[in-house]
Amino acid sequence: MLSYVCLSWVLLVLFTGPTVSESVVMGEVGQDVTVPCHYSVRDRNGITSMCWGRDRCPNSKCSRPIIWTDGWRVTEQHSSRYQLKGDLQRGDVSLTIVNAREADSGIYCCRVELPGWFNDQLINHKVVITKARISTASPHTYTSEQTSAPGSTSESSFSVTRTWPSVSASEAPKTASAPCSGPSDCLDVTANLQNTSVSLPSQQHPEHGLYIGIGSSAALLLILILALFLT
């Protein structure tokens, strides 16, 4: 009976395997993503080897291993992008994926090899790497309108009116409204212009004739006085 119970327990352990915990880790492309994994270290004798693999934890070792340690340092490393930045001697064996890519998404196994049969600590992590979110919202534009307050005069409605002094018909220059219709018309216009040019000096200096008349009268008066004295 006892042998039957022991055999059943061994078969159950072999087929079911050790208990495995699972978790989900999210990350973005281009960032460093840390996949956590720890085990308890009471003293130096508690430091043990472990491995990381790119698949679910098998019954032993790691499938598609990417990094191994002997408990004190890294002994095997598949790529420099997979690093253990924690304190290994304190049981911090978290995996850091440097400059994560979408291809890094998948299942990762952390296996800590503890002494004894079927005592290994197994943790499966589902890592999901997504592209960084980019805002697609269009930028807001703001427009402002300037309005004039009631009672004020806007620049667009302001107008300037210029007034010029009026000119009488007599002062306005006379211009021919149409070209000469014939030779006689042109001769008349030319004669008028000549008469105007000749008469302008006499109109502009009327005082010269007055001075000549006074001088002539004074000369005649002087001649009469001399004649009286002689006679």
TrEMBL record:
One of its GO terms (biological process) is apoptotic cell clearance. Its main location: membrane. It is found in: Membrane. GO terms for cellular component: membrane. InterPro entries: Ig-like_dom (IPR007110), Ig-like_dom_sf (IPR036179), Ig-like_fold (IPR013783), Ig_sub (IPR003599), Ig_V-set (IPR013106). It is a single-pass type I membrane protein. Keywords: Disulfide bond, Glycoprotein, Immunoglobulin domain, Membrane, Signal, Transmembrane, Transmembrane helix. It holds the Pfam family V-set. Residues 18-130 form the Ig-like domain. The chain crosses the membrane at residues 209-230. It comes from the Eukaryota. GO terms for molecular function: phosphatidylserine binding. Residues 1-21 form the signal peptide. Belongs to the immunoglobulin superfamily. TIM family. This is HAVR1 protein.
